[in-house]
């Protein structure tokens, strides 16, 4: 993959004025992504339309235009907009200007201070994430900031509150209108970066380990991408239970850090067969496998399960190779995915499950989980590890950092413009779109370039 | 199905002498059942050879012949032997005579007082249970009795101990040699019938609810065959957790009993659509489904799961219709079984698992679970419900009682001969084998005859 991208240039915000136009980038009712092809023509690995979602959490709207009567001085804000599916350059920094939004009942206006970058956004940019409304759309599923206005019927939030906010999309902008139910008060000692890093990674890890699986003392867990956002969250949560053994796969350079973080046995999956490595240490296998990779890795994970063990599939990172959608990688992941009948499961005493936070609509579960997580944070039992923070104009570098497997922990995006004196530091490489990205043996071909540490 | 069996006659034990012959009915290393056809020719629903069993628990041997040197006075005992696959008449009462067995290290000789009948034995008689060695073989997977002799290296059991004993097969005989590890001391207040009823039903229910699933306060559980052995065990175990809602399917005549036993919502699956009934009460569905039926019921159970819920498939009772193997019922169950890929699981946030006690080889898990269960028994939190007890010569009636869906709780077999004065009570119907048992619409065609209450 090295060499396929052109030099990075720092993004200059595009001015975009639409004071009267109705918002088009996002709306409260997210649509199915229209850009993905039919499942017949192309494996629908991550793009198959959801079957059973009753009430998807609302996407964050860019602040809706005010009714003419309520018109005040216009609001101008920076936003990272996905303009189409493809390479890094499809995510553009735009400056939007519109009338001050009139909040609906139950909504709050948040001045966003920090946003989380998730692997899902790499997928979404390639057109592989079915829960993002079709482009043009402001991306971003989580962030933190300060409440700037509250709508009617919002009694438990007030102007000035520091909150974490969660949405289907639209958090990557300087101001965002979100449902008050999807905001959570931040503890005083929590930084905005930590707040933006907590929600998706820790909720995902927590629900998998404690709601779906039944993590108890003495169990063993295989965590893939153990140095990533979810991986570090899962490792920390494993430490809250006595005597849990963690096998963690990650690129070799990250092993020291993840060992300090609680991984019992780090494994370099890029140079070693992790199944063999685990069998050497634990011939009987493991109790829980968290699988964000999909494809043949799900089969391997299943084979590693001890009786009464569970594998949870919660991602298809194997679909991502080059910068843009790779049909071959998708097909491979799709066709190699584990498919099972129940008789086989009976004879092996194993459990297979799937997890996707985006399809969970149980508000009680969300708030219960968040309050547990905030409690654990206050007790010092969990603490998001920030890998790096990039200003909006550096979004390409942020995405590259994750795509090129450099990050240890969370990659953060900051809406605030970069100060002049900081600027020279990061005029590295740009998101130029190169056609030739059909990397089949993805892991070997990627020469990871350390842009930033 | 009514009318397909001839009149029952009480079995007269067949005398069988084989003092020198090596035991043929069972051996310590159970073989794969050879009577089942190839998976290609016939759906291998419950007869597929196991893939991953390392050390199957030893079958109980009929007491092995002593070495000539150790010969003492010969032992004569009654045993229920499966002589071939088919109808009720394939299980024959035989009297065996052989030299007093010489125990190997770690073994004990048990004088069996009561044995459990399990649904698996109905399957096994039809040739549908792959873990039973091929006929001729003494059946029976659980029993209780008194230790009559101990082998070397057995320190925690002594002559006179009242024990529960567990084995792959061979427990349906008056004396049995078992591994001391697979015996468990009975509390004083426990009857032999209760001892014989506890192990398989409660272990199965316990491991499913607490090891595989993660039963916690406030959850809801669907228990099929709720008036059966496992069903009643599962219902009682649900009562040990606060605020658990139990939906239980059973024939209507059993509803009063199971409601008293803790089923919150009994459902007559024979006259009503249980999916509809459950949705009426709980539109969002249930958290855990215990599925001993297989086939299309697994699909229904899956559809009923709430997000983060789990279905555990642990049987294929739908394969059983008439007295003998029914290819059509097997094919239906096989082809309708749930088969899933992991992407679908992700989008629905559900877990699918299989459970089979017979494939569990973790001795620690067995003894840990048994000691928990015995503790719960002592605390009065669980208590096996004995439906009925039959002497060995009445085995046909015992099997019929279960097959014809009459039992509420456990059916017990007693090795001891029936006393003369009891005899007139049960000369009802015999296990005559009738060809015509291809009952397709199994549930409706079965006119249940109340032979005994
Ligand atoms: N289902 C859900 O609700 C849910 C929610 C959140 C996240 N997820 C999934 O969880 C996984 C982790 O997400 P995250 O946001 O925390 O990201 P992340 O782990 O920080 O992702 C980046 C890291 O993943 C590893 N990696 C493995 N395969 C890769 C590939 N094909 N391309 C790029 N990097 C790869 C790299 O580290 P190493 O080489 O060191 O391993 C890289 O540094 C993703 O699969 C994501 O889709 C699912
Ligand atoms: N995987 C394991 O480790 C394991 C261990 C033990 C048992 N099991 C399974 O659990 C289930 C229950 O076993 P059990 O030994 O406790 O038996 P049981 O429940 O006492 O079985 C008899 C009852 O099942 C109901 N039933 C439903 N479909 C039936 C059919 N096709 N034929 C006859 N009866 C039917 C009837 O009651 P209603 O009509 O009132 O419902 C009948 O009274 C079986 O499927 C068995 O294979 C599995």
UniProtKB/TrEMBL annotation, chains A, B:
Alphabetic keyword roster: Oxidoreductase
Source superkingdom: Eukaryota
One of the protein's GO biological processes: negative regulation of mitochondrial fusion
Biased composition (Low complexity): 1-13, 23-69
Residue ranges of domain Enoyl reductase (ER) in the record: 86-413
GO molecular function: oxidoreductase activity
Pfam families: ADH_N, ADH_zinc_N_2
This protein's GO CC annotations: mitochondrial outer membrane
Feature: compositional bias, Basic and acidic residues: 416-426, 440-453
The keyword Metal-binding is assigned to this record: no
Keyword Disulfide bond: no
InterPro entries per the UniProt record, alphabetical: ADH-like_N, ER, GroES-like_sf, NAD(P)-bd_dom_sf, SV-ATPase_mito-regulator
Region annotated Disordered, chain positions: 1-71, 406-453
Protein name: Vesicle amine transport 1
Species per Swiss-Prot/TrEMBL record: Haplochromis burtoni
């Amino acid at each position: 993959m090295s060499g396929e991208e052109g030099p990075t240039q720092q993004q200059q915000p595009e001015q975009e004025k639409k004071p009267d136009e109705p918002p088009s980038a996002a709306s409260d009712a997210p649509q199915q992504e229209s850009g993905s092809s039919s499942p017949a023509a192309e494996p629908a690995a991550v793009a198959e339309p959801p079957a059973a979602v009753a009430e998807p959490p609302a996407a964050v709207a860019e602040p809706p235009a005010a009714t003419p009567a309520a018109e005040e001085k216009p609001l101008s804000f920076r936003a990272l907009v996905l303009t189409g599916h493809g390479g890094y350059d499809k995510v553009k920094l735009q400056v939007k200007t519109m009338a001050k939004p009139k909040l609906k009942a139950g909504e709050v206006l948040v001045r966003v201070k920090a946003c989380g970058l998730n692997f899902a956004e790499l997928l979404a940019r390639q057109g592989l994430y079915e829960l993002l409304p079709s482009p043009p759309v402001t991306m971003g599923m989580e962030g933190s900031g300060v409440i700037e206005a509250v709508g009617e019927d919002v009694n438990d939030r007030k102007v000035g509150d520091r909150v974490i906010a969660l949405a289907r999309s639209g958090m990557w902008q300087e101001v965002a209108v979100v449902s008050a139910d999807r905001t959570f008060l931040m503890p005083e000692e929590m930084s905005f970066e930590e707040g933006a890093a907590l929600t998706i990674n820790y909720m995902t890890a927590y629900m998998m380990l404690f709601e779906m699986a039944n993590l108890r003392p003495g169990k063993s867990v295989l965590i893939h991408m153990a140095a990533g956002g979810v991986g570090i969250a899962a490792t920390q949560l494993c430490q809250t239970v006595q005597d849990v053994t963690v096998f963690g796969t990650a690129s070799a350079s990250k092993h020291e850090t993840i060992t300090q973080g609680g991984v019992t046995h780090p494994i370099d999956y890029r140079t070693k067969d992790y199944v063999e490595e685990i069998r050497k240490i634990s011939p009987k296998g493991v109790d829980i496998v968290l699988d964000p990779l999909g494809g043949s890795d799900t089969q391997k994970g299943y084979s590693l399960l001890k009786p009464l063990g569970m594998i949870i599939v919660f991602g298809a990172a194997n679909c991502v190779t080059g910068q843009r959608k790779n049909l071959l990688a998708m097909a491979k992941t799709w066709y190699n995915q584990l498919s099972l009948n129940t008789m086989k499961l009976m004879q092996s005493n194993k459990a297979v499950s799937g997890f996707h936070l985006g399809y969970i609509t149980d508000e009680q579960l969300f708030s219960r989980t968040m309050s547990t997580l905030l409690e654990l944070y206050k007790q010092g039992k969990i603490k998001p590890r920030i890998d790096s923070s990039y200003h909006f104009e550096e979004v390409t570098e942020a995405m590259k950092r994750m795509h090129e497997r450099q990050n240890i922990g969370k990659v953060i995006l900051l809406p605030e413009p970069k100060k002049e004196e900081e600027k020279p530091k990061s005029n590295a490489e740009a998101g130029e779109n190169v056609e030739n990205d059909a990397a089949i043996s993805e892991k070997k071909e990627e020469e990871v370039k350390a842009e930033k540490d």
